[in-house]
Structures are given as C-alpha cells and as structure tokens.
Amino acid sequence: MSIARKIPVALVSGALLAFFQCSPARAQQTTTQSSVTKETEQVHSTGVHHYHDPADEAQDALLITKVKTALATDGVSNGHPVEVDCDHGVARLTGVVASADDAKHAAQVAANVPGVTGVDNKLTWK
Questions:
Q1: Which residue in 56, 45, 57 sits closest to 13, CA to CA?
Q2: Contact 43, 75 (CB under 8 A)
Q3: What are the domain boundaries of the chain?
Q4: How many CB atoms are closer than 10 A to CB 78?
Q5: What is the pLDDT along the chain (126 residues), one digit of tens a residue?
Q6: Which distant-in-sequence residues (6+ apart) come within 8 Å of 46 by Cβ?
Q7: Other C-beta atoms within 10 Å of 113: how many?
Q8: CB atoms within 10 A of CB 93
Q9: Apex 62 CA angle, 103 and 120, nearest 5
Q10: Which residues fall within 8 angstroms of residue 39, CB to CB, at 6 or more apart?
Q11: Contact 89, 56 (CB under 8 A)
Q12: For residue 64, what are the contacts with CB-CB under 8 A and spacing of at least 6?
C-alpha cells in the first residue's frame, strides 16, 4: 500500500467527534500531527488550526483524504514520504519527492482537487 494512501484515522474520527460535541459559536484550536517514514526519509508535520465551525474541520479532513488520493492515483508521491495537511481549504504539502518538477506537479495535482482553495508547497527533492 502506498504511503500516500494511508489516511490519518485519528484526524478524521477527531473531526467527526468534534462535529457532534462542539458548539459552532465558539472557536476551537485543533493541533494535528502526522509522520511518514519511507526507508531512511521521514516527514513530520504539525498544524495548528482555529475552527469556528466543526463542519469546517470535517471539510478539511475530507480534503486531506481527497488530496492524498489524487497524489497516489497520479503516482507523483509513490515511493516518497509526502504528508498532506489542510487548513480552511488550503492544502499544505510537505516531504520529499524525486525532483523539482515532481514537486511542482504535486502542487498542481493538489490544486485541481475540488474544494482546495490554495496550495502551500513545502516539498523538497533529492
């Protein structure tokens, strides 16, 4: 199974739990942490998000899944540690890919996912 296809279950279930337990009138701070290891390369991502509506948090969790799926389907992230996070529709890509062209291509793939409003491309290459 490709690294990009692993969905952070805790993130999705946390978003759904927050949706059913929180009042939409008050902003909540959510911290997400995720790590990916591929042979000797490792990516760790931490994001702090401020959501006023639990539905926004759930939407970001869904976008993370859609972007990871798009990257895996395209193949640009295959064999490379790539992590995806999303904050209010802006996808953040971190990790390592094969080349600068692959980093640019991955950002284009993410930008083409419906619902993504922007891409913060932090990918590096060997």
A1: 57
A2: no
A3: 3-125
A4: 16
A5: 444 444 444 444 444 444 444 444 445 566 666 655 555 566 666 667 778 888 988 999 999 999 999 999 999 989 888 999 999 999 999 999 999 999 999 999 999 999 999 999 999 998
A6: 31, 32, 33
A7: 20
A8: 24
A9: 30
A10: none
A11: no
A12: 7, 8, 11, 84, 85, 86, 91
CB atoms under 10 Å from CB of 115, counted, come to 13
Q: Give 39's DSSP letter.
A: T
Residue 53 is predicted with a pLDDT of 86
Q: What is the distance between the alpha carbons of residues 97 and 43, in angstroms, rounded to a whole number?
A: 11
Distance from C-alpha of 48 to C-alpha of 50, rounded to nearest angstrom: 7
Which tokens is 34 given? 């995720």
User: Could you give the angle at the alpha carbon of 24 between the alpha carbons of 32 and 49, nearest 5°?
Assistant: 20
Could you give the C-alpha distances from 66 to 29, 91, 113, in angstroms and in order? 23, 10, 7
User: At 57, is the secondary structure helix, strand, or coil?
Assistant: helix
AA identity, residue 44: H
Residue 86 has which token pair?
């999303």
DSSP state of 4: G
